[in-house]
Amino acid sequence: MATWPPSRPRERASARPFCNKHHMPDLFSPFTLKDITLRNRIAMSPMTMYRAADDGRITDFHIMLMGSRAAGGFGLVFPEQIAITPDGRTGTSCAGIWDDGQIEGLSRVTAIIKDMGAIPGIQLGHTGRKGSELKPWDGKVQTPPDHPEGWQVRGPSPIPFGGRFPYPVQALGRAEIKDLHRSYADAARRALEAGFEWLEMHFAHGYLGASFFSPLANQRDDEYGGSLENRLRFHREAMDAVRSVWPERLPLTVRLGSDDFHPDGVQFDEAVWAICQLKDHGLDLADLSLGMNTDDVKDVPFDKLAFMVERGSRVRREAGVPVGVSWNLGIPAVADRVIREEMIDLVMLGRPALSNPHWPLYAARELSHEDPLSLLPEDWSWWLRRIPGPEGSQGWPIAVRTA
After folding, report:
1. What does the DSSP assignment read for 276-320?
2. Domain 21-386: which CATH class?
3. 155 three-class SS
4. How do the domains of the chain map onto residue ranges?
5. For residue 388, what pLDDT is reported?
6. Is the pTM of this model over 0.90?
């Protein structure tokens, strides 16, 4: 296995930007943020599943998916990105939270997650100019506004994304921006009513927040465009709107598109600056990802283990906020080491969480955890402890000890 990450000198305790009551954390250490304590440092990232009803309501599929991952030992569990408006969805089969009638289904999600011992998180977002898209298995291409499953996409400027997203973009007016901020606040109120205890705002992956931040998509000449300060205004005001209704005792986090991997797009230094600014607007943790505001990218290290961790570690040091990252962290030894080295605070797993609903149990066995079955609900672990049998007889691979 590749040797990663490089060893880093441990920061002196007095220099640490924050303390989480654990002097030597590992992947299975509890993590406290505001009044919420996760049972470990493993989070299931939001992943769009294209299984919601046409009206944006959650279905039994989501109950199954979220409940099984919570039962599998994840500390924090997100459904997919939840759209704040109908045109904020990726497609008509994606979930929403723009109507009070959608609360009931989301409440079922939070109930099963809590019952299985995890914390339910919600990611609020708007796809902007990357919306109105067919399902991946139907082509994953943007549909025109007059298509039965399409709509007029909106963004900061009338600049189509290009490629799979060729259709004209309607530039948002000031009044529409204010309406969207109210939609964020309304969505946060509904999320609280549905029982979510962790709220993340999705400002990455080429969606609306990411496009406001990136000069590739934002060429406005008003207070929402031009300078870096102006390009972050949409985010600051959206966060202020959410924080006005989201309790201070509950975490408010942001997934930020921290690099466009394009010379004319967002540079990582700008993302570090942005996280520092968002701290003053209620940011409790930074979830760093990619900008994805263009397909014309260079040197994106998709084939590298944990390639966002070094960047996350820098934000953690310089901004003084806890950090979570995703991307290629599915090897337990790597995930554990980046927590032990105190480079990041949360490991965000997307595809590994889909491929293995019991990834935390798998990781605990690989890492010689003293009691891997303690990660499971008691009724499940009771059966597995009762008659252990020969190693390998219970249906999981024989562990490869790495610690």
Report:
1. HHHHTTT--EEEEE-----S------TTSTTTTHHHHHHHHHHH-
2. alpha beta
3. strand
4. 21-386
5. 74
6. yes
The two tokens of residue 174 are 């000031």
| pLDDT band (50, 70, 90) for residue 9 | very low
Unique residue bearing structure tokens 């470990």: 40
The residues with which 253 forms a beta bridge, in sequence order, are 200, 285
**If you count them, how many residues does the chain have?**
403
In contact, 68 and 82? CB cutoff 8 Å:
no
Point out the residues that are catalytic: 207
Check if the beta carbon of residue 50 is closer than 8 Å to that of residue 91.
yes
Give the integer Cα–Cα distance in Å for 57 and 125.
15
Task: Give the pLDDT mean for 21-39.
Answer: 90
What does the pLDDT read at residue 15? 32
Give yes or no for a contact between 127 and 90, defined as CB atoms under 8 angstroms apart.
yes
Question: Average pLDDT, whole number, for the chain?
Answer: 92
Task: Provide CB contacts within 8 A for 27, sequence distance 6+.
Answer: 40, 41, 42, 332, 335, 336, 339, 340, 347, 363, 367
- Angle between the 174-194 and 103-115 helix axes, to the nearest 10 degrees? 50
pLDDT at 56: 96
Task: Write the pLDDT tens digit of every residue in 180-211.
Answer: 999 999 999 999 999 999 999 999 999 999 99
Cβ atoms 258, 307 nearer than 8 A: no
- The C-alpha atoms of residue 91 and residue 52 are separated, in whole angstroms, by 10
